[in-house]
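Recall that a protein's primary structure is simply its ordered list of amino acids. Everything else, from secondary elements to tertiary packing, is in principle encoded there. The following example makes that idea concrete.
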Amino acid sequence: MRAAKVFGDTTFMRADDSPERPEIQLRPEDLERLRGLMPRPAELPELAERLRERKKLQTRAELSWAAIKLALERGGLEHIRTDEIAAAAGVSTRTFNNYFRSREEAIGSVAGDRARRVALALADRPAGEPFAEAVVAAVIAEYTWGQEPDKAVVFQLRSLMTTDCGVRPFMLNAMTKLEDELAPVIAARLDLPADDLFPRVLAAAVNGAIRVATEYWLREDVDTPYTALLRQAVSTAAGLAEHVRPAHDVQASLPESARP
């Protein structure tokens, strides 16, 4: 082997060098863990369906945020048209109409669509990940998109969504959407019956934690990053699963008349 050139702490090998590679030996338990990370054949159709749904939700999100941006720039929804929203999102007006019936729906659907994305994100978290960590990761990913939100923009957005008569009904309809979307995913993750009460309580706790963290962050005297507050609040709510999870033989299930 030809000698390598060393610069500081970095070694540069020539193209014709052939360094010896260490032999990697996997124990049986390592192989089993790797198999656990691979989807089973029976899960492939469900994974494909989730991917298709994610793509649709991504398109809806792009249209919604294009509508929001234009509305904020022009001082209200009444100053924008659906074809302008479509153009800003880089799609045709026909595509916009395939996803939304109006510009009001495009903006009002933000919370409901986000709720569905959180549920999908939680469903996609590794099976062996601690429950609270999985919920926190799913919520933060969809509520922050990897960056700290701007308070001023959030205030403007909330004003737009709560004062516009055309948007308000969609927002009211989405208030409990996160609970409805999260409950079955939580039940599956905790290996509980789909109609069990406990997952619905946990979903409501997570939904409330997000609301409280957001309201607290919006206070003028608070300068703590939103992500940190969201992590703390959601972790506390999701932590209930580790401390008060009911025993299997005393699980409380909803009566048939109260099932969704």
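The first strand starts at residue 5 and ends at 7. The domain at 127-243 is CATH 1.10.357.10 (Tetracycline Repressor; domain 2).
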